[in-house]
Amino acid sequence: MTKGKPPSHFRWLLPKNDFVFKLLFGSKNKHSKELLTHFLNDFFQVPEGQSLSNIYLQNPHFKKQHLSDKASILDIKAQIPGTGVINIEMQLENQYNMDKRSLFYCAKMIAEQLDEGDNYKQLRKTTTINLLNFNYFNHPNYHSTYHLTEKKTGIHYPDILQLHFIEMKRFKKLQNEGNINKNDRLAKWIEFLVNEEDSQWAILASKDPIMKKAVERLGIISQNPENRRDYEIRQKALKDITTMKEGAREEGREEGREQGKVEVAIKLLCKGIGIDVISETTGFTKDEILKLQKNLNKE
Questions:
Q1: pLDDT averaged over the chain?
Q2: How far is residue 173 CA from its own chain's centroid?
Q3: Domain of 159, in residue numbers
Q4: Cα 269 from Cα 266, distance rounded (Å)
Q5: Has residue 230 been placed in a domain?
Q6: What digits encode the pLDDT tens for the residues 169-202?
Q7: Residue 87, phi then psi, degrees to nearest 5
Q8: 137 and 78, same structural domain?
Q9: Residue 62 within any structural domain of the chain
């Protein structure tokens, strides 16, 4: 995309789509590396003049079939000398397992660092960063950090693993309430990731030079026809997950309602209430109630 305003018919792709997120921050090109470096510097609050450097992506490529695979994870794995190994994952749907899932991936990345017979001293710090499009923990902060500590003293275990969770919906709520610290360096990135309003991109770009580059890069990605096709494929796969979950919840509610009606019918039968009244109350047919009564008599 050329600098300046995009075409009037232009439609921005959403950066919180994990495919777009990986194109922006996890691809093997200088633009992606620059954005990832700035993101991590702000994430870890690296002091000015001490920027992280030599970030090596461990999985810059992905196969096309992963886009339509609902179980695939388009994460970003990076290695930073002096800092360790980092995994960044964008998760749009709450599958109610992020605490265990993140811990599992962290442990797996630790195990993958060593071959049989290697010295344990070679293990490097492993960090997972989970960008969640839902609220998961019951506390007021949008960014939570977990690591091992001694129970009584609170003294930190040697810093071999660290789990981060960014709850983006909680961030938006705090932002709308004016409760985001103006010195929060991470905030501009989360604001960028959660934005869905085309009119806001120019405003975001005007706030910071690196955000200007991020918005421009998103614009270039958004105008690429192949990227747009892949984006739609990925969006469909992500929506299918939502549809499946909603269907499962509705099925569970329906089963619950059905079970509830059975319990009501049984109670009414035990009280000697007439079949016509039970049918009108529960919606069961007379034959269904007679069958239920027959089973009760057997018991």
A1: 87
A2: 17
A3: 18-223
A4: 5
A5: no
A6: 999 999 999 999 999 999 999 999 999 999 999 9
A7: -120, 130
A8: yes
A9: yes
